[in-house]
Write a structure and sequence with these properties.
Number of strands: 10
Largest sheet: 6 strands, mixed
Number of helices: 10
Shape: globular
Order of helices and strands: EEEHEEHEHHHEHEHEEHHH
Radius of gyration: 19 Å
CATH class: Alpha Beta
Strand content: 15-25%
CATH topology: Rossmann fold
Amino acid sequence: MTPVIQLQNIHKSYGATLVLKGIDLSVSPGQIVGYIGPNGAGKSTTIKILIGMLPDFDGEARVLGMDVKTQSLDIKRRIGYVPENAALYDTLTPMEYLQFIGQLYELDPTHIDRKALDLLRLFQLNDYANARMTTFSKGMRQKVLLISGLLHNPDVIFLDEPLSGLDANAVVLVKEIIRQLAGSGKTIFYSSHIMEVVEKISDRIIIINQGQIVADGTFAELQHQRPESLEQLFAQLTGSDGQTGVAEEFIHTLNN
């Protein structure tokens, strides 16, 4: 089966700082990949390379069989990207913003309007479809971002902390949407700090630390190697398993 995502010996530096140190991975169609690591490990950098935002890297990156460096526009037509934070043009309404996004993907204007209204309704934003987004909460903005990243029905979806700011009901809905998208053959590349969600929805979990992959497998496979929760496994592999002592010291300092 031809990989949907393929990285070979990827290195990326910012100035003198080497952020990615030889990343190799291959993702098959229909997989939900949880890509996790501590802050600064290289998660967002990896995603930005795959979606064509960072063309200056060493190694080979391919999405849907296409070269990221030379075919980035063709790739962007077939992928969706939902970042943790993005500019939403606050003076626009959700409908105006989604019409703009749909036109970028050359969708039919009538189709955009119908689809945008239906998706806003499913996220309980239909009453705000024509309201300026200047007063929107972070959760409401995140819902609009999620819709905009999926509006064109992409084949591969990159999610970077997609649950940021969402209420409990919306989190449940997004998790189920992700499962059903993968069930229909879409490939999901999911980066998050919420271990419980990654553990429950991912077919495969990749842990990156200091620019290198330190674990790769299903949760059951990783747990078989080290019988802990994903949170404990993550702490061990990324060198952050001394948090209990740090917390105790924090409480001690507060009390003195």
